[in-house]
Amino acid sequence: MTLVDPLSSLARARASVLRTSTAERVADAVREEVVEGRLRPGARLPEQALCDALGVSRNTVREALSQLVNERVLAREPNRGVFVAQPDAAAVRDVYRVRRLVEPAAVRDGEAWGPAAVARVRAAVDEGRAAARLAN
Prior knowledge:
Elements: H1 8-18, H2 22-35, H3 47-54, H4 58-70, E1 74-77, E2 81-84, H5 89-109, H6 115-135
Helix pairs in contact: 2-4, 3-4
């Protein structure tokens, strides 16, 4: 019987962690702001403001914005700038199609979760509802 080092998976992940670029971290930060609703659909993202807020170069911000445009999180409008994407009806339908696949599985397999995990999910739902009330 071979014992498996529980940290071996982290050692394998080390290479990808070390390769994370500043632009990827900037993209992660902007993506998080969009996901959390702090950057609303249609909001303009001036490059210099992002540079100042994140303390990075303009080239780094441009690279991050290009990545997010390719992911369709942001939209680039010629001669106007970069904006938070506004999902159309097809994108919203796609989200609900995925939810129809994921949510029943989460409910079905959720019995294995302990009280602490359920409490974290409940807190996240409460936070989302509070954010929705503030947005309206």
